[in-house]
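In the current project phase, work has continued on tokenised descriptions of protein folds. One protein thus recorded appears below exactly as we store it.

——
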Amino acid sequence: MIVLLSGIAAFSQTQFQVLIEKPGEKSLKGILSREAVENDTSFRWYAENLKGYTPNAAAVAGLKKNADSIQLLVFMGTWCEDSHFVIPKFFALTDAAGFSSNRITLIGVDRQKKTLSHLTEALNIINVPTIIVLQNGKEAGRVVEYGKSGLFDKDLADILGNLSNKTIPSPSR
């Protein structure tokens, strides 16, 4: 996992393909920047899905508390309605926490949930969006779609809250 994540970090600049998988539908596949999704006029859903959202206070606190010890690996589909709903709110949540964008890697998948470098297969991504919380290069937890509770940010808060309770050993050098 650590080698894989090092490879992702090396490519953390935007590196993606633009696909037309259905008529009139633009998809982005690969490592994305938030701005590529947020500012693309094809993705009007981004601004629409921010309306009325208040970030979960426990998730904001958890992100602040763990800001220096975690990374977030986020898989999404620009074609996926669940991603349309969750991803804008996810970024509003990280903004509210002052969480560094350098600690977030956003990865777009095609309709077959494939991306560049076989990352979805390596990390067992079946549904999107999937938010993976990494601590010391190891998965500490993940939120798939809306999460088990139906509220992605509540489930993310639960994962972040448990980080202080478990010790994940640092990788040996």
User: Anything to note?
Assistant: The helical segments are 2-10, 34-38, 45-48, 57-65, 81-97, 119-122, 152-163. Residues 27 and 78 are 5 Å apart (CA to CA). DSSP finds seven helices and six strands in the chain.
